[in-house]
């Protein structure tokens, strides 16, 4: 599914090279639930951006479903982001003027899906996250946990190959955060591939595998029974 080989990401700071990622090799299989765990500045966000095709490595090889991402055009990368990867962010990134249903429909509009089919798929995605009774509510009418559920539904609606979640509980209280992580567990049990980026070991422990990163290097990779 996801194969990274000898990935480097290097930034120039004056005359000095700063290694955000330093020789990272990582494989994530289909239907794995993997947490990438590290403190601020460890390189986990840079790694997420490369996995999500939001950034490219300085050197190394990235294969997504067997396709070498490094060689793709900007348009091809945009298509992968819209169809192969479902993004979930800490800030929810919902459009305030749109209802929950309309927010979830957005990726389908970009794909050119007709209106009746968009409605159907968006409703199904919201039902999966327990929001069938909030279809016409706007973000300000929803709690933080409900807004994140809308964001999860939006990520699911295109049936992506991988769900990429960046600190998805960072703006939530502990109860709402636990509820969101239970949704991720359910999605994993339904066959989703999930990559979770976090600094919090208690959140990482929901995953089935934890990859620890520090100073741009993978320092530990362990499966959880």
Question: Summed up, what is this model?
Answer:
The longest helix is centred in the C-terminal third of the chain and has 16 residues. The strands form two sheets. The chain has a six-stranded mixed β-sheet with strand order 6-7-8-3-9-10, with helices on both faces. Strands 2-1-4-5 form a four-stranded antiparallel β-sheet.
Features:
P-loop_NTPase; nucleotide-binding; ABC transporter ATP-binding protein; 10 strands; 4-stranded antiparallel beta sheet; alpha/beta; ATP binding; 6-stranded mixed beta sheet; ABC_transporter-like_ATP-bd; Rossmann fold
3D structure, described in words:
Belongs to the ABC transporter superfamily. One of its GO terms (molecular function) is ATP binding. It is a single chain. The protein has 225 residues and is an alpha/beta fold. It has one domain: Rossmann fold. Helices cover 34% and strands 29% of the residues. It contains 7 helices and 10 strands. The chain has helices at 44-51, 74-83, 100-110, 115-128, 144-156, 174-189, 201-204; strands at residues 2-13, 16-28, 33-37, 59-64, 67-68, 85-88, 162-166, 194-198, 209-214, 217-223. It has a 6-stranded mixed beta sheet with strand order 6-7-8-3-9-10, with helices on both faces. Strand 9 and strand 10 (217-223) form a beta hairpin. Helix 3 packs parallel to helix 5 (144-156) and helix 5 runs parallel beside helix 6. The longest helix is centred in the last third of the chain and has 16 residues, at 174-189. The model has no long low-confidence stretch (mean pLDDT 93).
How far is it from the N-terminal to the C-terminal residue, by CA?
A: 22 Å
CATH architecture: 3-Layer(aba) Sandwich
What's the overall geometry? globular
What percentage of the residues does DSSP assign to strands (E)?
A: 25-35%
């Amino acid at each position: 599914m996801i194969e990274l080989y000898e990935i480097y990401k290097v930034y120039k700071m004056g005359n000095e090279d700063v290694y955000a990622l330093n020789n990272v090799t990582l494989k994530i299989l289909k239907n794995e639930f993997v947490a990438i765990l590290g403190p601020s500045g460890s390189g986990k966000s840079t790694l997420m951006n490369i996995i999500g095709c939001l950034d490219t490595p300085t050197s190394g090889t990235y294969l997504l479903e067997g396709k070498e991402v490094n060689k793709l055009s900007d348009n091809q990368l945009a298509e992968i982001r819209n169809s192969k990867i479902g993004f979930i962010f800490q800030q929810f990134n919902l459009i305030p003027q749109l209802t929950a249903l309309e927010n979830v429909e957005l990726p389908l509009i970009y794909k050119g899906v007709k209106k009746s089919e968009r409605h159907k798929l968006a409703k199904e995605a919201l039902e999966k996250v327990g929001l069938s009774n909030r279809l016409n509510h706007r973000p300000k009418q929803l709690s933080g946990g409900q807004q994140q559920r809308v964001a999860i539904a939006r990520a699911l609606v295109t049936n992506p190959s991988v769900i990429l979640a960046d600190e998805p509980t960072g703006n939530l209280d502990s109860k709402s955060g636990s509820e969101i992580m239970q949704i991720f567990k359910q999605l994993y049990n339904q066959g989703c591939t999930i990559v979770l980026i976090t600094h919090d070991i208690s959140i990482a422990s929901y995953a089935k595998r934890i990859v620890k990163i520090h100073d741009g290097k993978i320092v530990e990779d362990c499966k959880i029974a």
